[in-house]
Amino acid sequence: VHPLVTPGDMRSFTVALQLPQDQQDVASMRYDAYIQDLEAVVQESIDREAELQNRLNGILTGRYRAKPQEVKTLRTNLEESKALNWPRVDAALDSLIADTQAIGPPISPETVERAVFDLYRSIYLRPLRQEAADSAYAGEGLDFFILVSDAMDEELADADPRQVEDKLGEWRRAMLPTLRGAAEARRRNALDSRLARLRGDLASQIDLMIAECKRWSDRQQIDYACFVAIYQLCPNQEATTAWTARYRKANYPWLWKDNDEIELIADWIMFNGNVGQIEIVNTVVPRYLTQRDELRLEAEGILLQGRSLGANLCDDIAGEYQEARE
């Protein structure tokens, strides 16, 4: 079931809508009804798939003899069943948002827009950041509001808060029309990719990769514009370096991770080693850190180039590739 509004998301949404406490209690009851709707969707999905799941498990454990292609067909049907949940899940989200807005007093459209966008940031971007340790991650879950909030305590501490807020507003307005649609397309793409793998349909897998790269490229343009806008607000060279490093790490956290094995070993030696060992660390580690960052920059460039090539492939390249392969 995706997207899922958590209790914390709901509390933040009601606060953003400026609901008084008594109306927040009403909104809490509305949230309970939302959860009941999702539980019903899950149960119907389990009931709908029970016969298919039982047949597949029976074949895999040797209780039943499979017909030709039956295992592939069963797995395909189970995957396709997931998509039947999405219209009701999306409708439950829309109903929750609309009903919660109706509970409170009249507020400006801009306040409502901000509240809805903050909710979207939570339910659509947060799950993507949970995959940040995967080397396939390339900033899909990047949230500039979180990024800037952390930076305001460090490199942006001396920047003008009003100017920073203006730049975040530009990012919000650029993201709002595409955030939900891109998430729903990614959800569909992930399912179609699994189905294509089950069918052994390489051409479709490539087409899906191209479509995902195009969506990633569109998102990168929005993010990079915001990065540059805030870069220009950095008060000094040290701040611009720190802001650039923060942005890079947010896009490729698995590549730009802190405290790798060499740094941990070096730290241990600095606290526990003898004079000769410490001298070696002081000689070796600075050179290692320089070379490591050079390699990370090169790797990042290769990754960006690969994504860009994927986004710019012509739509019929998959068919040509499959034909050549055959």
Describe this structure in words.
By secondary structure, the chain is an all-alpha fold. It is built from twelve helices and no strands. It starts with 6 loop residues before the first helix and ends with a helix. The mean pLDDT is 90.
Mean pLDDT: 90
Count of DSSP strands: 0
Spans of at least 5 consecutive residues whose pLDDT stays below 50 are none
Class of secondary structure makeup = mainly alpha
Helix content: over 70%
Global geometry: globular
User: Any idea what the radius of gyration is?
Assistant: 25 Å
Largest sheet: none
Task: List the helices and strands in order.
Answer: HHHHHHHHHHHH
Percentage beta strand: under 5%
Number of helices: 12
Distance between the termini: 39 Å
Tags for this entry?
single chain, 326 residues, mainly alpha, 12 helices
Secondary structure layout plus pairing:
Blueprint: H1 7-16, H2 21-60, H3 70-83, H4 86-103, H5 109-129, H6 144-151, H7 161-199, H8 202-231, H9 237-251, H10 261-272, H11 275-312, H12 317-325
Helix pairs in contact: 1-2, 1-5, 2-3, 2-4, 3-7, 5-7, 7-8, 8-11, 8-12, 10-11
Short description:
This protein has twelve helices and no strands. The chain has 326 residues and is mainly alpha-helical.
